[in-house]
């Protein structure tokens, strides 16, 4: 399943990348996502947010009562035009799910236009596509939550 998300942040790309490497912001992101528990790891090349999320009742037969979702953000140096390329990986440990996306944070006036393009694959014979359709909303919600919380933090 192809993934494509576009977001706007009210700050330049370098400030958005700095925020995505801020442990307090990542803690806040997990809290607002409803994580039952979470971990944050920040390094020079990126940041990882691991969240154990409750699963809606209609999905528990496919994935269980909770779902571990690990998001890893990695960004490179800015290009000459100020655009910052990167990658976002979403790992769901214990499930045959593979998700990765390229990221591009482009300056747009005083804001950033973020484009994420990737793919979600669930490798379960016969029901893989159905499970992809069930897992994709978790990934979309994670990206939507990221935009909402980042906007809140960047406008303080």
Mean pLDDT: 90
**Uncertain residue segments:** none
Strand segment count: 7
Q: Tell me the fraction of residues in β-strands, as a range.
A: 35-45%
- How much is the radius of gyration in Å? 16 Å
**Alpha-beta content class:** alpha+beta
What is the straight-line distance between the termini? 36 Å
Helix content: 25-40%
The description of the largest β-sheet is:
7 strands, antiparallel
Which of globular, elongated, flat, extended, rod-shaped describes the shape?
globular
| Spatial arrangement of strands, main beta sheet | 1-7-6-5-4-3-2
Secondary-structure element series: EHHEEHEEEEH
List the helices and strands and how they pair.
Elements: E1 2-9, H1 13-20, H2 23-33, E2 37-43, E3 46-54, H3 60-63, E4 66-75, E5 84-91, E6 97-108, E7 111-122, H4 128-154
Antiparallel strand pairs: 1-7, 2-3, 3-4, 4-5, 5-6, 6-7
Helix pairs in contact: 2-4
Your description of this structure?
This protein is α+β, with helices and mostly antiparallel strands. Helix content is 32%, strand content 42%. It has helices at 13-20, 23-33, 60-63, 128-154, and strands at residues 2-9, 37-43, 46-54, 66-75, 84-91, 97-108, 111-122. It has a 7-stranded antiparallel sheet, with helices on one face. A hairpin with an 8-residue loop joins β4 (66-75) and β5 (84-91). α2 (23-33) crosses α4 (128-154). The termini are far apart. 27% of the residues are buried. The model has no long low-confidence stretch (mean pLDDT 90).
């Amino acid at each position: 399943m192809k993934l494509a998300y576009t977001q706007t942040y009210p700050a330049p790309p370098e400030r958005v990348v700095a925020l995505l490497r801020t442990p307090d912001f990542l803690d806040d992101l997990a809290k607002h996502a409803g994580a039952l528990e979470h971990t944050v790891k920040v390094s020079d090349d990126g940041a990882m947010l691991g969240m154990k999320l409750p699963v809606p009742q209609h999905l528990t037969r496919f994935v269980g009562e909770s779902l571990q979702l690990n998001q890893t953000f990695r960004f490179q140096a800015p290009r000459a035009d100020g655009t910052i390329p990167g990658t976002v990986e979403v790992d769901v440990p214990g499930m045959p799910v593979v998700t990765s996306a390229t990221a591009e944070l482009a300056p747009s006036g005083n804001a950033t236009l973020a484009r994420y393009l990737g793919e979600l694959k669930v490798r379960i014979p016969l029901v893989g596509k159905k499970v992809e359709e069930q897992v994709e909303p978790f990934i979309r919600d994670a990206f939507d939550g990221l935009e909402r919380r980042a906007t809140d933090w960047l406008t303080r």
